[in-house]
Each structure stands twice: as structure tokens, then as C-alpha cells.
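W.,

You were right to be curious about this one. When I first looked at the sequence I had no strong expectations either way, so I just let the prediction run and decided to look at it fresh. Below is the sequence, 229 residues in total, followed by the output.
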Amino acid sequence: MTTRPPLENERNQEATVYIGNLDEEVTDRIIWELMIQAGPVINVFLPKDRITQRHQGYGFCEFQAEQDADYASNVMNQIRLYGKPIRVNKASANRQRSLEVGAEIFIGNLDAMVDEPTLTDTFARFGTILGGQAKIARDDNGQSKGYGFISFDSFESSDAAIEAMNGQFLMNRECTVNYAFKKDGKGERHGDEAERLLAQQAKKNNYSLQPPIAGVAPTAPRVMMAPGL
């Protein structure tokens, strides 16, 4: 079983699936045994925290054939592992959705106990999160700096998240939620009219920011869940 980090130019994105919302008990081997039921697997990689050496709630699985990745993204999405529905979609679809145009929010005043999976699960109900995972700023020791970022695939989702979550409590602290500052250093925030217009144009030009259709399986699925998964 190969679990080393594959280099970008080594990985066939069309034959690779992203796997998110993983319970901390899930291991590389469990993902391998699950995904091999969709087709021959080349590589499984769950990025680990460099301090705790625990995975960060997501990972990647590369298959030998592109059609196996398509099949896995259809039949494995929302399967429960350790009580949590996992998210499975083509990695190439994530790359296409990375053409996002600014639906990025900033979440501040986070409790130190809030981690990436918790933040992701809290905000995932508002829409699809690009990359499948929230990002929390951390210091050199891996400790949270008290703020994080989430990029949605639409302004409808980011607007809803800001309206619903700004001023709400996460763990024991009242979080602040607003559009993130742009990275050009001019002090402007995302979510302006220009970005919204670009988002509309992107959709008209078939730069789809929507996730693959989930849960669509053949009449006789070939997935057999292993005992205990």
C-alpha cells in the first residue's frame, strides 16, 4: 500500500478523488480497503498534522483508471465511516471549482478547541466549501491563532453563512464572520459587485462551480462494505 505524498505532476487528477469529513479514527488502510472496492488503487494519502501526526479530516485516493474515480465519487459519497458521512468527489472537479472569484469568508475569535473538521462541519450546511475543508491559521507549534477562512463555491452560500453565523457561539466564544480581505494588500474585502459579476459570467461560460452529482449509483452497485466500516 503506497501512502507517501504524491507529487502534483505524478498524480493523475482525473483518476483521483478527494475524500472529506473523515473521522479521526479513519486510517489510510481503511480508506484503501474502502476505495479498492471501486477499482484498483495506486495511492492513498491523508495529510497529517506535523505536530500531532493525526490526519486533518481529508485525503486523496488515486485509482489506476479514470472511470474508477468516477464510480467512486458516485457510489462512495455520503457513505458513513464511524458515524460520519464522508464526502467524495473528483479531484479534478475541485481544481475546476478553484476558479472561485471571491466567496471567501473570515471567521475570527475562534475558541482554541475549534479545529478544521469542526469549522468545516459547522459551515458546510450553507453550501459547498472549495477544497472540502476550512482553513485555520496556526503558529509554528500547530496551535490555532484564533481565526480561519472558508471559500464557498457561490456568493449565495457565503452571504448565508455570514448572516447566520456572525455573532454566534462556537464552543465557548462568540465568533465574528465577515468577508475576508483580498490578498492584494489594499484593504478591500471580498464580496464586492465586481466579483459577483465575475461569478455570474463564469457560470454563463460553463465554469461550473457546483459539485458532482452525489449518491447516483448503478442499479446493482458493486460496493460491499467491509465489517466494521
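Here's what jumped out at me. The domain at 104-204 is CATH 3.30.70.330 (Alpha-Beta Plaits). And, maybe more interesting for your project: The chain has six helices and twelve strands.

Coffee later to discuss?

I.
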